[in-house]
Every structure is written in C-alpha cells, then in structure tokens.
Amino acid sequence: MVGISDKCTEDIARERKKCSFSSTELTHFWDGGVELTKRRKLLENYFLSDPELKSSVPLEYLSHKEKYERSIKLSCLFFKKISNWLEHNDTISAMEVYQSVLGGSLGSAVLKDGFPFAVHYVMFIPTIIGQGTMAQQAHWISRAWNLEIMCTYAQTELGHGTFIRGLETTSTYDPDTEEFVLHSPTLTSYKWWPGGLGHTCNYAVVLAQLYTKGQCHGIHPFVVQLRDEETWMPLPGIKIGEIGCKLGFNTVNNGYLGFDHVRIPRDRLLMKNNKVLKDGTYVKSQNDKLTYGTMIFVRVIVVRGVAASNLAKAVTIATRYSAVRRQSELKPGEPEPQIMEFQTQQYKLFPAIATVFAIKSSATWLWDVYNSVTKDLDQGDLDKLPELHAMACCLKAISTSDANQMIETCRFACGGHGYMTSSNFPTIYSSLTAAVTYEGENTVLLLQTARYLVKAWSQRDVTSATITATLKYLSDFRPSDIYQPWSLTMSNLAEAFRLVAAGKIKYCSEHIDYLIQKGYTSEDAWNATSIQLTQIAEAHCRAFIVDTFVKETEVAVVSEPVRKVLVQLCELYSVYWLLKNVGDFLVYSHLKISDVDAVNERLAELLAAIRPNAVGIVDSFDFHDDILDSALGAYDGRVYERIFEAANKSPLNAEPVNESFHKYLKPFLKGQM
Ligand SMILES: CCCCCCCC/C=C\CCCCCCCC(=O)SCCNC(=O)CCNC(=O)[C@H](O)C(C)(C)COP(=O)(O)OP(=O)(O)OC[C@H]1O[C@@H](n2cnc3c(N)ncnc32)[C@H](O)[C@@H]1OP(=O)(O)O
Ligand SMILES: Cc1cc2nc3c(=O)[nH]c(=O)nc-3n(C[C@H](O)[C@H](O)[C@H](O)COP(=O)(O)OP(=O)(O)OC[C@H]3O[C@@H](n4cnc5c(N)ncnc54)[C@H](O)[C@@H]3O)c2cc1C
C-alpha cells in the first residue's frame, strides 16, 4: 500500500497547480461575495469542530429505531447550538443561518439523511407568515421560533398528493361552540408523508376542506395540536404514526395522521386570506391560490438549496476521483492515464459542473423575484403572481430532474466504488431524487408552466405592451427568424433556445386548437397534447436559464480568468443541451443539418478547454470534507486509504468469525442441517 497515497495526492496537487484562475475568487463568486464566504466558514467552524455533533458508528449500520433516536439527539444538540449562536452573534441573520444549515448542506455533515425538524422551519413557520393574521403570527411564530412547540405541514393524504382540490380531510364549522370539527372520513383521507409528523411534532398546519353553513369552500390551513405538550401522548381523536422505511430520508420521521371528530377553536383557521366569522359566514380572499403560497416558497428554495447543492457535491466527488483514479491505456505502453483524460469521462463531468452554475444563476433570479412579488402581495398587488408560479414550477422541475440524472452519471463515472455507501452517492442521490416528487411532482409542475405558456401565446399580441420579461420572446417571435444564418456565438445560441421554445409553444397551441376543431373537448385536447406540453415548459425553462446565465457572465464582478471560466461553462451548458435536443433545434431554430458537425466540434473544444481547470472549479464550491463525507471526494485525494478505513467500520469486521458460522453455515456444510 505504500506509495499509493503519495501518488494520488501528487495527482490532485498537480491539477491544482495547472489551474488558470483563482479558485478562491470563484468561491467568493459562488457564495455571493468575500463577506459571505467568511460567514459561511465561520458557521462551518463553529458547528463542525464540535465533537458532540460527530458520530463514531456510521448511520447506515444502525437499525431504523436507532437512526430515529440518534436523529432526535443530534437535532436537539444541533438546533440548541444554532440558538446559542443566534443569541451571541448578530452579524449573521437568523435567515442566513437557517439557510446555511438546512439548505446550504452544512446540516448534512451532522445528519446526512435529513432532519425531522426541517419542515418546522421550511414549511410551518413560512405558512404562518404567509397565511396567518398579525395576531396569529405573533402567537404561533413566537412559540415555534422559541421551540416551545415542534410543528409540521400536513397536506398530502394517502389518496392525494398532487390534486390538492381532491383532499378528503374535512373541517366543519360549528357556530354553537365556535369550533371546527376535523375528520378523516376514509382511509385515503389520512395525512401521509409530512416530515417529523411520526413522533417528533406536537402541532401541524393541516390542510382540510372547509365546510360552513352546509357549503364546502375548498382547502384551508388550520393549526392543530396533535400531542400533549408534557406527555407527548396523542390527543383524543388523533391517530398518528410513522410511515416506515424509505429510499432515503430515513431520519426525517415522515408520518401519518387521521382525525376522529377533533374539535379546534375557530381562530385556528389561518385567516390572513380567507375568514370564517363567528356566525359561520365565509369571507373570501382576492385569489384562492394564495393558500398555495408555502408551496411556491419551498419550490423557490429547492432550486439552489437542494438541486444545485446536491449536484455540486456529486460532481466534486466524481471530478476529484477522476483526477486520482488511473485505469486502462490511452496509448499502448504508456502509463495508465487519470480517467479524466478520457473524453467520455469529461462528457460525464463537465456538463454537470456547468449545470450547477446555470442552476445557481436562475435560483438567484427566482429568489429576488419571490421577495419582490411577496412584497407586492402584501400591498394587494397580484399581477406578478402567475409569472412567479410558472417560473418556480419549471425551475424546480428542471433543476431537480437535471440534478437527478447527473448525480447518477457522476456515480457511474466513479465505477464500482461509486456504488459504495462510503462514496456518499447513495445519500446524495436519495436526498435529491425525493425532490423530483415532493413539493409538486415534476411532470405536474411542468404542466402548470405549460398552461401559463399556452395562455400567454394566445394573448401575445393583445398584451405585447405589458408582457413580462420572461415572455417577451413570444411577442418578438417571427416564424421567418428560422431562416437567419447560423453562427457559433453565445448570443446566437441563446436566440436558438428562444426560437425552439417559441416554435414549440406555437405548435402545441395550434395542435390543441386543431383537436378542439376536430371535436375534442378542451380537456381531452390538452391531455392528448400533454407530452409536448411538458416539453414546451422545459424549452421555455432552458431558454430562460441560458439567458440568465449569459447575463450573469457579462455583469459578474470578477477577474478576466474567472470570467473566461464562467463563459466556457455557459457555452458548454448551451451546446450540451442543444445537442441533447438537436432534433428540436433542426425543426424550430435556424440550426441546419450542415451546422451540426461544427456544434459537435465546439463541444469537444470546450471539454478540452475546461479539462485543466476541472479540479480547480469544483474546489471553488469549497465543500468541507465533513460535508462531502466521501471516501472518493476528499480534498487530499487519499481515495484508497479512505475506502479501506470505511470498510473497516463495518461491524462485521469487528470479529474474525461471525457467530452465524457456528449456528448455520458449519452445520449446513457438514450436512447436519
Ligand atoms: C428558511 C430556511 C430555508 C433553508 C433552505 C432549505 C432547503 C430545503 C431543505 C429541505 C426541503 C425539504 C422539505 C420539503 C418536503 C416536501 C414537502 C411537501 O411536499 S408539501 C406538499 C406539496 N404538495 C404539492 O406541491 C402539491 C402539488 N399540487 C399543486 O400544487 C396543485 O394541486 C396544482 C397546482 C397541481 C393544481 O392545483 P389546482 O387544481 O387548484 O389548480 P389548476 O386548476 O391547475 O390551476 C388554477 C389556477 O391556479 C394557478 N395556480 C396553481 N398553483 C398556484 C400557486 N402555487 N400559486 C399561484 N397560482 C397557482 C394556476 O396557474 C391556474 O391559473 P389560471 O387559472 O391558469 O390563471
Ligand atoms: C421525501 C418526501 C417528503 C414529503 N414531505 C411532505 C410533507 O412534509 N408534507 C406533505 O404534505 N407532503 C409531503 N410529501 C408528499 C409530496 O408532496 C407528494 O408525494 C407529491 O406532491 C406527489 O404527489 P403524489 O404522491 O400523490 O403523486 P401522484 O400525483 O399520485 O403521482 C403519480 C404519477 O401520476 C402522475 N400525475 C398525477 N397527476 C397528474 C396530472 N394532472 N397530469 C399528469 N400526470 C399526473 C405524476 O406525474 C406521477 O407520474 C413528501 C413526499 C416525499 C417523497
């Protein structure tokens, strides 16, 4: 074994020397500025140096029950430490601290399979802010924020997750006692999935169909107590439990919940938007979709906090490993090359690096728009809500589905060792792949964006004067634009993405009209076009991502060497996705068959140009080794020693002969069984 480690560390050190730009400068860009990098590191040092937050036995060797018990112990220690930090430091806002620990992946170093407290912060508190009156906010936020109560968000049921108008839990107003009566009429009406619901939370926001004066007014949010605050016993009429093992998130304590005529006071209905008066009169808000506000918030934070962050981890591991792993021959008789020399390996890694930066730039846009629209909503201005909803839906869907596919590719790029739990790919993948489904299943979200696009297409001439920035290309669109000459410039590539989106939206809209003329109902015409409809949402989203990334590379305040790297990644992102959908570009944009060879050549040039900087670029994500938690991806490149050390943590290796030999194997082999 002597010498292996030196060779690997030399390989990775050589990569760092080759780098043509300052990794530290790119880290500052990634974090959003020097100051933010400093703050992130400060928090990392504070949490990751604490021995109480470290575990000696890897999580995967514990039983399901032990995992839960450990998760509660660590969550309590961790969140206590966060409170201590916030008490003694006012330089970093509470929001930034929570973003960093829950979304910025610092938390994964403490509890890699997820926190049972996450939904309390990510959904319960935001729902109270978005849906509660001032008095309700004052009461519930202070209780939740001070951790007097532990809460979750219970919307999904066994029978319905997507179609929330179809939820079955009822909440019927009784004016005699001024109470609501919550009830689960069927097995399929049981709440199913909420994080922390099983045994961790004693309160929840519950979404239920509101009935008053014999009329149903659709789903509304209610704050419901589930467990006694002292004994933690479920309250009368509450049936509660945990839903069992899952592909991942096995420390999150996802639960189920049913109600048997449970009474709650009238003021537990969150009444910022819709109200029920004492006598049972229902007062409706301006827009019934305001009840869906928390979902928009989570979709917005998932783009960067889950998709970009998990993909960045995966590609850091795979790129560093590809710099130290040597295999096969490039030329006969020559030493085995680093596997990153293979062009096919570069094709697995570098588009994923480019995608991380692309997602990040769109996530920043989305977060800013979310904040500005939220301010407008508070003033009663709902004009920009449809655009925010449409962009949050497609960006959540595309960022998580790209990350899902690319994390798997990164794992494949590590060969057999990528399959080891110690590579950390299983946890990264299982955390990310859940996001394809939760907070709106991706196909369903793409169809929401498509609905907005088809409507925008039909109104593009009428509204062209006031059309929003993300849709301007539709009113600018001229079908004859596909006869423009092709060139391999960034502005031309961005134009091609817009042409594809506009051309496909036009086609889909016309197809729906054609089917309706043929006698289809509009719903049937929609369903019969829905494969293409999901594709228009993707095309719109890609065009948006490319535009946003291009603009970011132009305005970023960075040195020329760093800008050059960003420009290469932006071009790689565009060329990669163009070639993946080359048929669409041939049909709907000005790309011609005779231009495709040049685009393929450009892809090869870009891969070669990025190759010397690859390790430097992933270093700029600046993941602490404890966060990456990977034998293959640690900073020093000591891959083989770490794989070996991790294998020796297996409890099976604690004894030379396992007792099952004496009990079963020996009698079996001796014919005595
Ligand atoms: C502070 C720290 C931060 C740290 C960062 C942390 C990082 C993260 C860490 C860890 C996260 C893990 C934690 C999360 C775990 C997961 C939680 C859950 O999963 S909770 C359940 C989610 N459930 C869904 O999302 C259901 C999906 N279904 C729906 O949303 C709806 O049912 C939908 C949209 C599919 C259909 O709803 P319809 O049937 O009522 O609506 P239609 O008829 O299609 O449309 C009516 C109109 O409403 C608009 N609309 C629909 N949704 C809207 C919305 N949300 N806002 C505004 N308008 C909307 C539409 O655009 C349409 O508009 P027109 O009529 O065309 O103008
Ligand atoms: C890890 C995890 C954590 C979660 N946490 C929470 C939580 O804290 N709180 C909570 O309330 N919920 C939570 N959920 C539930 C989650 O939000 C739902 O699972 C999700 O919204 C999808 O709904 P569903 O399971 O009913 O899928 P379904 O809607 O049944 O989807 C099944 C298939 O049907 C298709 N489909 C459904 N409707 C349509 C349509 N209209 N058009 C085309 N195709 C359609 C989908 O594309 C999919 O292929 C969580 C889920 C997971 C996996």
UniProtKB/TrEMBL annotation:
InterPro entries: ACOX_C_alpha1 (IPR055060), Acyl-CoA_ox_N (IPR029320), Acyl-CoA_Oxase/DH_mid-dom_sf (IPR046373), Acyl-CoA_oxidase (IPR012258), Acyl-CoA_oxidase_C (IPR002655), AcylCo_DH-like_C (IPR036250), AcylCoA_DH/ox_N_sf (IPR037069), AcylCoA_DH/oxidase_NM_dom_sf (IPR009100). Residues 292-454 form the Acyl-CoA oxidase C-alpha1 domain. One of its GO terms (biological process) is fatty acid beta-oxidation using acyl-CoA oxidase. One of its GO terms (molecular function) is fatty acid binding. Coiled coil: none annotated. Its cofactor is FAD. The keyword Protein biosynthesis does not apply. Keywords: FAD, Fatty acid metabolism, Flavoprotein, Lipid metabolism, Oxidoreductase, Peroxisome. Belongs to the acyl-CoA oxidase family. This is Acyl-coenzyme A oxidase. It comes from Parthenolecanium corni. The lineage of its organism: Eukaryota, Metazoa, Ecdysozoa, Arthropoda, Hexapoda.
